[in-house]
């Protein structure tokens, strides 16, 4: 398609979503809507005709966006973050929506019902969500058996976490649970994410403590897998903690970081909504600044030694580009799609092409970390 046709198509889809579908959807309980989307996505994924129609409506490709990272080919840098497709039910339809990669989970060693309802809220004015699912999923055994024989059209990440249950709060049992999930997926998918940062579980986030993280990674390193391994980080960690996590990651061959998970903070100055649930983690625009700060810090300390996936507050191509120029090689989103519509994936990717060409880049990989380089040059000039 001509680029102007893509713009027209996306504009029409945005108009229909913003003024037609979204006002209706946002009057209904968000978890009910999520469940209906999953139901429809599973049905559409099994129908070749529907997949073609959805691909026609939402896909966008451009060579400038292609990258090979850790031996994995990504057709574009925009992925679906973990938390939307918890049980890997949308694997057959997600490629048609235009995503460059797809992360399922979080998946835990044992099945988990999650926290009591209600556990999902919209912050409509602040463009965010409050999420309190508590790692609801069908467990690593059932999910791995069901998707083992799938032909993955785009790179698939498997996000592994500790079962949200009192039986896993003790350190030894928690590690054992991670090991079970990790082992069940050692030969499934393209990369691992070890989720050490879910804010909605029994026992908190013990593995953000570098001493406990060492114990976890020691056990996981005993499981032989060819898949790259990422750590999903909590937001608002101190620089001292980040430095310690980087040091531990070097010792255990961690390949990269996902920055960041949901935030537990409630003192954001940008919160416009009056009623914010006290429980749960916050996503969307409210999480953007923290994610960008973490990306910049890790990239400035490691200079490409680790692959960074940026996650938090991506609603536009400019949002994604900011993370890439801060040091992210790839980006993920969920909340932006919910607020802007599914065509936003194509809009982001097409917008990235425009931004890259404007800055004179022939491939997206050339833009990674460029803001950090420019800031470094500015500091030198000021010192001189």
Please tag this protein with its features:
alpha/beta; three-stranded antiparallel sheet; 13 helices
Main sheet record: 8 strands, parallel, barrel
Rg is 20 Å
Distance between the termini: 51 Å
The number of helical segments is 13
- Helical content band: 40-55%
Tally the beta strands. 13
Beta-strand share of residues: 15-25%
Q: Which geometry do the CA atoms define?
A: globular
Record the strand order, biggest sheet. Answer: 3-4-7-8-9-10-12-13
Mean pLDDT: 95
* Multimeric status of the protein: single chain
Estimated structural class: alpha/beta
Contiguous uncertain segments of 5+ residues: 376-384
Which H/E pattern describes the elements?
HHHEEEHEEEHEHEHEHEEHEHEHHH
Give a summary of the structure in a few sentences.
The chain is an alpha/beta fold and 384 residues long.
Question: What does it look like?
Answer:
With 384 residues, this protein is α/β, with parallel strands linked by helices. Helices cover 42% and strands 15% of the residues. The chain has helices at residues 3-25, 30-45, 48-58, 94-97, 140-147, 171-184, 210-220, 239-251, 288-302, 317-326, 335-340, 344-358, 370-383; strands spanning 67-69, 72-74, 78-80, 101-108, 120-123, 128-131, 156-161, 191-195, 229-233, 256-259, 281-284, 307-311, 330-333. The chain has an eight-stranded parallel β-barrel with strand order 3-4-7-8-9-10-12-13, surrounded by four helices. Strands 5-6-11 form a three-stranded antiparallel beta sheet. Strands 1-2 form a two-stranded antiparallel sheet. Helix 1 (3-25) packs across helix 12 (344-358) and helix 10 (317-326) crosses helix 12. The radius of gyration is 20 Å and the shape is globular. The protein starts with a helix and ends with a helix.
